[in-house]
Amino acid sequence: MNDVTAVRGAAARATEASRDGPVVVLTYAHAGAELLRKVLSASPSLECTLGTGVIPLCHSALAAWRAVEGRDAVSSALAIKSVRALAGTMITAILADSGASRWCETAAAVPEAATTFLQVFPSTAFLCLHRGFGGVLAEGLKTYPWGLGASPFWPFAGPHPGNSVATIAAFWAACTERLLDFEASNAERCGRVRYEDLAADTNREAAEIYGFLGLGQLSAPGVPRVTADEYPGEAVSAEQLGCMPDWARAKIGDLHSRLGYPPLFGMGGMAADWEQQ
Question: What pTM, to 2 d.p., does this model score?
């Protein structure tokens, strides 16, 4: 059994008894969250939102409670109950006019904030959305052709001045590793989604996601279609590989392996070209 199947299987068993909790999509910029949100929004049971701030609010509120109570790490039952009441009121307000029964948030939250949210709402189901480095690189370069300033990649640019490929590589590696570590620590609550799988066979993946979340069946007309423009090529050229430092090539290769993607140097048929350099 590969790690993708293991994560999905464990999560499905864990959520069997709690199919009414919040749904949180954890991902990062340019990972294809728009497609996953379209799939989830097709369910009348879910009210899908983006970046409401509720998840980081829970993290900050519990941190404030620990400071007030003089605790270093473990939050008290009173603190958790208080934060649950605060966030629960907000979630109720989100659901009030929608007719949906469950809140579904897409967030680029750091794992620490997601872990805190799970403390507050233990029945939360997480969908961890990944995308291979090649796709993120292609979309990043296309979206910011004149430089990465003011982009989500910019905080990683310092060690790589003027090198957009290395900057995006550092961003992807950091985000992917954090997300994989969160999955490993919360395997019973997490389901993994790979953008490439979702784009290649949206109907099949949608059925798996709906099954994991305990939603009703999704009819075929409700599944969005993917156009060629929404699914750019995933190849990494030999020239782009040459712009990446050694550590980035090694790290991305390792993370690709953990996610079940092809080796980085084999993407786009460029392995032989790279070996000749």
Answer: 0.86
